Amino acid sequence: NKSFDEVKKSLNNEVDNLLSISNIKPRLRMIALYAYAQQNNYLVMGTDNQDEYFIGYFTKHGDGGVDLLPISKLLKSEVRMMAKYLNVPESIINKKPSAGLWEGQSDEDELGFTYHELDSYLLDDKADIRPNSVAKIERMHKYSMHKRNKAGMPLSIDEVLKRKRKE
Q: What are the EC numbers (predicted)?
């Protein structure tokens, strides 16, 4: 992709972490999606399911930069069930999940646990989950909180004064 190559080149090799470089692609897609959406008076829909949203498995200001998250309350397994109901081809339903950030990348290899384990965790059924997977899931949830919250803003002077008066 020419845009990706130009952005990468402009960084003058100062950014060389694979994940940092790879996250440029979804951020460029977000720019294109918002240009198209604005031109047509549309909203940008996200594809994050409950599993991905819970652990922050999306690029901040990339595929996470959307207006609506219509399937964010569906587990990964429920998304697959819905796809079957809608007659989505089996080749798509059974395709190994991948964020497509680099060649050969797969979600489960990168995460270190399966979507089945993550679904089980979210259903509070930890019987099928390896103990190290529970720890990884909880760590990812904790450290991705900033992705699920809007940017913090300081209190206004009026708000500070109101709080002081109440004390």
A: 6.3.1.5
Thinking of the domain 2-147, which architecture would CATH place it in?
3-Layer(aba) Sandwich (3.40)
Note the residue count of the chain.
Answer: 167
Residue-wise burial string across 68-94, b where 16 or more C-beta atoms lie within 10 A, e elsewhere: ebebbebbbbebbeeeeeeeeeeeeee
164 with 75: CB under 8 angstroms? no
- Nearest Cα to 24, choosing from 47, 32, 97, 158? 32
For 82, residues 6+ apart whose C-beta sits below 8 A from its C-beta are: 71, 74
Average pLDDT for the chain: 92
- For the segment 130-155, what is each residue's pLDDT rounded down to a tens digit? 999 999 999 999 999 999 988 888 88
| pTM, to two decimals | 0.84
| CA gap 3, 37 in Å, rounded | 19
Structure tokens at 132: 């190290």
